[in-house]
Amino acid sequence: MKTPILETERLILRPISLDDAAALQKHFNDWEIIKYLSGNVPWPYPDYGTNDFLENIALPNIKKGRDIMWVLVPKDGADKGNPIGNIHYRLVSQVKDSDRGFWLGRAYHGQGLMTEAVCATQDYMFFKYGLTSFRVRNVQSNIGSHRIKEKTGASFIRLEDEPCGHIDGPTEIWEVTRENWAKIRGWD
Ligand SMILES: CC(C)(COP(=O)(O)OP(=O)(O)OC[C@H]1O[C@@H](n2cnc3c(N)ncnc32)[C@H](O)[C@@H]1OP(=O)(O)O)[C@@H](O)C(=O)NCCC(=O)NCCS
Q1: Of 27, 103, 118, 138, which is best to mutate to test ligand 1, by the most ligand atoms within 8 angstroms of its C-beta?
Q2: Residues near 5 by Cβ (< 8 Å), separated by ≥ 6?
Q3: What are the sequence ranges of the domains in the chain?
Q4: What is the pLDDT of residues 93-142, one digit of tens each?
Q5: Is the beta carbon of 164 within 6 A of some atom in ligand 1?
Q6: Cβ 34 under 6 angstroms from ligand 1
Q7: Is the CB of 112 under 6 A from ligand 1?
């Protein structure tokens, strides 16, 4: 299924492409972002890290149908028309084990932008793509990511001892289901 362009109040969410590499690299090369992401993301971050990630990992996985990935593009402001972050769903199966990840440039934190992106992409993933549930995780100290989950219908499942990123600390495991999201949207 072709990844659609989605629109929220302040953002266009469009499928990621290799042309986005330079703009994403500018926002992504930041310890305050990378410290919360998988230990597979190198730090210090290499100059062409985003280009290499897109070319060798993300775009091949998207082509194989394993990942769906959007960039967040503001409709207004200094970065109007340019990507400032991304949100992706890794598809393991329709009913379990799929998961989601996201990051946003630091200049844009705390304005509710990722919450907008999560709502729009969850609508798509559950009601158009047909996913029934997926898991999400964050290191416990990642308050922003924790709070987004609380605001967007995720149910807390358990705390695991293993860290899930570069920094130490237990990992919160959550589940998001179509059933619960439909209730929150008033579409059940
Ligand atoms: C996590 C991240 C995507 C959040 O994006 P965002 O657009 O700032 O998120 P939102 O503004 O939609 O929501 C964040 C919420 O967390 C709250 N928050 C963020 N940091 C906080 C802190 N240190 N203490 C208390 N609340 C905090 C915000 O106030 C907001 O809640 P509110 O709407 O109730 O006020 C962004 O911080 C980021 O990219 N972080 C680095 C990468 C990352 O952590 N990715 C996820 C890995 S699991």
Answers
A1: 103
A2: 12, 13, 14, 15
A3: 6-185
A4: 766 678 999 999 999 999 999 999 999 999 999 999 999 999 999 999 99
A5: no
A6: no
A7: yes
